[in-house]
Design goal:
Shape: globular
Helix content: 25-40%
Oligomer: single chain
Radius of gyration: 14 Å
Structural class: alpha/beta
Strand content: 25-35%
Number of strands: 9
Distance between the termini: 23 Å
Strand order of the largest sheet: 5-4-3-8-9
Order of helices and strands: EEEHEHEHEEEEH
């Protein structure tokens, strides 16, 4: 929730290199969780974030995308869609769970366990500024840009 300290994590990126949230202290960070690389909605969202990176960069905002996909699949996704920010692998779903981005959700009328598409804006001190759950892939980044004044 806003005001809470963001759970720290270290996860492998698409190349297997560790990335820690704590290494980004001192700057604003957008952490977003998505269900699966190379799927239509997740591709749209990642491409929208890539298109917004010049504007986010002007504000010193870093973006991290996290899914339960293996690093090799993330690398394929990054190359195919020319994604310009780190994609991180949370295969055991521990970070997804810590952020409340994994759990029961309704998909095509059925209740299932899965990734809840969520976005968090984390301030330079490591506190959650915005916590957005069950966001839509389409239009989400534009709304976030408006909310952040970008």
């Amino acid at each position: 929730a806003p005001g809470h300290r963001a759970p720290d994590f270290t996860l492998p990126d698409a190349d297997g290199n560790p990335v820690s949230l704590s290494s980004l202290r001192g700057q604003w960070v957008i952490v977003y969780f998505y269900p699966a690389a190379l799927t239509p909605g997740c591709t749209k969202q990642a491409c929208d974030f890539t298109a917004a990176m010049p504007d986010f960069g002007k504000l010193g905002l870093a973006v991290l995308g996290i899914s339960p996909d293996a690093p090799a699949k993330l690398a394929k996704f990054r190359e195919k869609e020319q994604i310009t920010f780190p994609l991180l692998s949370d295969q055991d779903k521990s970070v997804l769970t810590a952020y409340g981005a994994y759990g029961e959700k309704v998909n095509y009328g059925k209740t299932i366990m899965g990734v809840i598409r969520s976005t968090f804006v984390i301030d330079p001190d490591g506190k959650i500024e915005k916590a957005l759950y069950a966001v839509k892939a389409t239009g989400h980044v534009d709304r976030l840009r408006k909310d952040l004044g970008v």
